[in-house]
Amino acid sequence: MFSSFLFKLILTVIISIFIGFQIAKFDIQPADLTIQETTYSFRKIVEPEPPKIEQDPALQSQIEQYLSDKTGEYAVYVKDLKPEGKRNACIRCEEGFEAASLYKVFLMVAVYQAVNDGNFTLDTEISAKMSHLNEVYGGVDFGYENFSDEEVIGYTVREALDRIARVSDNYSAIMLAEKVGWNSVQAVADEIDAKNTSIKSPITTSAEDVGVLMEKLYNGQMVSLESSEQILDTLTLAQINNRIPEKLPKETKIAHKTGELAGVRNDAGVVFLNGNPYVIVEMSKNLKGEDAGVENLAEISKIVYDYYNAN
């Protein structure tokens, strides 16, 4: 009896030792507890994407029909600003096009954000040598042809913003962008989830991205209500008015920003049609005739205005 018990005990010990050796053969790796760094902002995570606009078939059709036989490529975004409004249109509005000077609206918001943060004031002076501005711009901007490389160009922040709005002054834009940092301009686009906007050469955006920014300015949602209103008020001073405003009644209040490059003509803004305000963004590329492109943008603007007036 005792010998049988002893045999079972020895057998159990041997089996346990054998199992222990088998387990020891496995290379058990510790769990990786490293916290991975992410580049996503908290704002991006918690805020939903802007809803896609519901298109008005009649308005959409009129614009598409007009563009059907036109050379070049066009993108159009129209957004009804009445709370219950549905007179919207989107023709290639989510596609990336060269922004040209439309990026300056993002820049203006970035400047007002820096002022609001206390980094500087609207009366702060900014300046740069012509040689630097020419290098960044890649040429000589219109209106600066008679300045030597050694001369210094200087404005207050307020004056530079005014020049951007009135004549789309590229040197004012460069000085302001370097003052706030180009990354701050991109941050404005990121804040509104403008996924097709890249503030890198060549600067690109979409009609929808710019349209969303314009709508937020209208609603007082960029920086502050006061800053949003000041930006739109400044944009009403534009002196290049051969696109959105060209065929509209002269008394119509319009806050807009144009943009142009070779083969590119753009315009974006808010039309304060009495009781029927709306955003309109027009972009183009691969224009064979730039004057014809400008005429097409003016005609599309009239189509939209007439449609809002009649509906």
* Alpha carbon gap, first and last residue: 106 Å
Pick out the low-confidence regions: 17-51
Largest sheet data: 5 strands, antiparallel
CATH architecture: 3-Layer(aba) Sandwich
User: What percent strand?
Assistant: 15-25%
What gross morphology would you assign? globular
The CATH homologous superfamily is called DD-peptidase/beta-lactamase superfamily
Query: Any idea what the radius of gyration is?
Result: 29 Å
Number of helices: 11
Q: Secondary-structure element order, as H and E?
A: HHHEEEHEHEHHHEHHEEEH
Q: In CATH, what is the class?
A: Alpha Beta
Helix fraction by DSSP (H/I, runs of at least 4) = 40-55%
The SS-based structural class is alpha+beta
Q: What is the number of E strands?
A: 9
Could you describe the 3D structure shown?
By secondary structure, the chain is α+β, with helices and mostly antiparallel strands. The protein has one domain: DD-peptidase/beta-lactamase superfamily (Beta-lactamase). The protein is built from 11 helices and 9 strands. The strands form 3 sheets. Strands 2-1-9-8-7 form a 5-stranded antiparallel β-sheet, with helices on both faces. The chain has a two-stranded antiparallel sheet with strand order 3-6. A hairpin with a 6-residue loop joins strand 8 (264-271) and strand 9 (278-285). Helix 4 packs across helix 7 (170-180). The model is unreliable at 17-51 (pLDDT under 50).
